[in-house]
Amino acid sequence: MTVAGSVAGCVAHGADDAATGNLPLKHVEDVPLPGRASRFDYESYDPRTHLLFIAHLGDSEIVVFDTLVFRVVARIPGISSVHGVLVVPELSRVYASATGTNEIVAIDERTLKVIARTPGGVYPDGMAYAPDIRRLYISDETGETETVIDVPGNRRVATIPLDGEVGNSQFDPVSRHIFVNVQTRRQLVEIDPGTNAIVSRTDLPGAKGNHGLLIVPESRLALIACEGNNRLLVLDMRSMKVVSAFDVGDAPDVLAFDPPLRTVYVAGEAGVVSMFSVNASRVSKIGDGHVGPNAHVVDVDAATHRSYFPLKDVDGHPVLRIMAPR
After folding, report:
1. How far apart are CA 31 and CA 75, in angstroms?
2. According to the model, what pLDDT value does residue 15 have?
3. Which end of the chain has the smaller Cβ count within 10 Å, N or C?
4. Collapsed DSSP state (helix, strand, coil) of residue 278
5. Which domain of life does the protein's organism represent (predicted)?
């Protein structure tokens, strides 16, 4: 672990490249991030510790940002080509997918030190946690499988063939099942963690490159971002049918949900963010806006409603762009 230097605590106030269009967002701050102007990937927020864990893929490290004091508090190096990152607050653990070494790296959230490394398949990416059996499910993108890791033992216990390139994975707290995008088959696959068996495959009409996935359990809706045709599909999880679809910005990637405001963010590689309102049974579009260059990653603090966008290159330097509702 590396404790961040003072430069990471400085705050830049300019956001000339943020043109939020008809989004109900305002710019709060740009906080400089350490390291090179290289690609970021997933991020994950722990509301109990107020720590945001950001995968700096291009620098093979995780940047730890404290949302209370608005500064970077640590850097966790040695996670080769880190793609996915997932906080499991009840375990005080952070998990990261190191695509460069095809490992899943376990980190103690209290000490911010690496405590285990487990084989993660071929090109491990997104992750989901099944709390009932304390297992981690990892999207093995090019290996076309789902890797299953027993968390207490930090060991791989299953490899589930999915027969296609794998997108994001999510845990559904209602069914207690794992759902996975299989993007080359244009399907959403349902896995029972109790048996690690595939229990359903749902075809997704209108999908092309269905990669991003967000489940809104109380509405029984799954939102599926398709990077191949810039569409957001809405799947009714009761009928397992696509009930609506929307245009979004180019190459949509990461989705985030603000439960109190019932708002979904869809962040795209082109820097365009689309926002949606989710009620009990349907989704409606709020609008689109350009938040920043390569603003394809987003997470939201549901207590403050601030949204966080790590940007790899603003005037030659990486920054964390912080937005809030107007």
Report:
1. 15
2. 52
3. C
4. strand
5. Bacteria
